[in-house]
Design brief:
- The termini are far apart.
- The protein has 87 residues and is mainly alpha-helical.
- It has 5 helices and 3 strands.
- A hairpin with a 5-residue loop joins β2 and β3.
- The protein has a 3-stranded antiparallel sheet with strand order 1-3-2.
- Helix content is 59%, strand content 8%.
């Protein structure tokens, strides 16, 4: 499934401005840009946004979050297991 920036912002409870900022700083890039110039996000980006929001809840700064989730050693499944342990 694909989501426009508006759809994703409503789904995740964040503003479209936040998503644009995440794109600008390289934290969360859209899957593609439509021919009309709209940001389009896929399931992978939705899952990544969930991870970003989780780390934000832990008060990690965005630069730290970026380095963690874009690290070669980052394992999404392991991160979810860690999340489950905490909550």
């Amino acid at each position: 499934m694909e989501y426009t920036i508006n759809n994703l912002s409503k789904l995740a409870g964040v503003s479209t401005r936040t998503l644009r900022y995440y794109d600008e700083i390289g934290l969360l890039k859209p899957k593609r840009i439509s021919s009309s110039g709209y940001r389009i996000y896929g399931e992978e980006e939705v899952n990544l946004l969930q991870q970003i929001l989780f780390y934000k809840e832990l008060d990690l700064p965005l630069e730290k979050i970026k380095s963690v989730i874009h690290s070669e050693e980052f394992d999404c499944v392991e991160a979810l297991h860690e999340h489950k342990k905490i909550y």
